[in-house]
């Protein structure tokens, strides 16, 4: 590689030329500032401020500040109440849904239980009729009964017939009672659901009415405060 030694004389000349150029620019800047310096300002004397004292102005400011704090606090409380009411309404809605599901499951379980009872009663009736038919077959024929004891039907046949009739009437009565009970329960459940729906609708309507009245009151109060602040005598923009 080749190392070139700098020329000291030329280096000093370049530095001096740079310094002289910088001083010339600074002098030009100072001369331009002096030439463009703003002149004296002349204003017409006038009275500033309103016709109220400092204590009154401070008091008005304090009142305005307190009103704004009260409005913010009131709005915050209304927001918290609205949020809490919405959460409670959501919880009540979920509870109502779960209650309806539980009631439907209970109705389904009772219907299945009724179906099982009906099947059991039908099977029991079938078995009883089968037994009674076997007993009827085991009884002596009508000719022999007439020869042995002429007259009306035998006492055993009457008892079996009366027993069959009593069983049928008892089963029919049980089925009718179960049907009436299920119908009453279904009507009661429907009435409860309608009443709960009406209560939920009424509570939501009252809540929204109260919220709308409070918002209208706060809007009127805020508009009144802004109107008083804008048109106070002696205040400047």
From TrEMBL:
> Could you list the residue ranges forming a coiled coil in this record?
72-117, 164-198
Which key words tag this protein in UniProt? Coiled coil
Can the keyword Coiled coil be found in this entry's annotation?
yes
Note whether Endoplasmic reticulum occurs among the keywords.
no
**This chain belongs to which protein, by name?**
ESIP1 protein
Q: Which organism is it from?
A: Ptilorrhoa leucosticta
Q: Which gene encodes it?
A: Epsti1
């Amino acid at each position: 590689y080749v190392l070139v030694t700098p020329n000291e004389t030329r280096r000093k000349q370049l530095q001096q030329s740079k310094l002289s150029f910088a001083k010339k620019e600074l002098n030009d800047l100072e001369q331009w500032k002096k030439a463009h310096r703003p002149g004296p300002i002349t204003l017409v004397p006038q009275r500033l401020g309103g016709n109220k004292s400092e204590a009154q102005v401070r008091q008005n400011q304090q009142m305005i500040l307190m009103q704004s704090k009260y409005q913010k606090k009131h709005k915050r409380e209304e927001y918290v109440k609205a949020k809490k009411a919405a959460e409670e309404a959501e919880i009540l809605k979920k509870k109502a849904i779960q209650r309806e599901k539980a009631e439907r499951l209970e109705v389904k379980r009772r219907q299945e239980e009724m179906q099982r009872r009906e099947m059991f009663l039908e099977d029991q009736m079938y078995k009883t009729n089968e037994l009674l038919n076997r007993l009827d077959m085991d009884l002596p024929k009508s000719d022999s009964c007439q020869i042995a004891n002429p007259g009306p039907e035998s006492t055993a046949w009457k008892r079996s017939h009366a027993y069959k009739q009593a069983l049928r009437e008892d089963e029919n009565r049980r089925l009718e009672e179960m049907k009436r009970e299920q119908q009453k329960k279904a009507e009661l459940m429907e009435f409860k659901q309608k009443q709960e729906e009406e209560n939920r609708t009424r509570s939501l309507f009252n809540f929204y009415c109260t919220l709308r009245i409070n918002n209208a009151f706060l809007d009127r109060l805020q508009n009144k405060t802004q109107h008083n602040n804008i048109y106070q005598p002696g205040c400047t923009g």
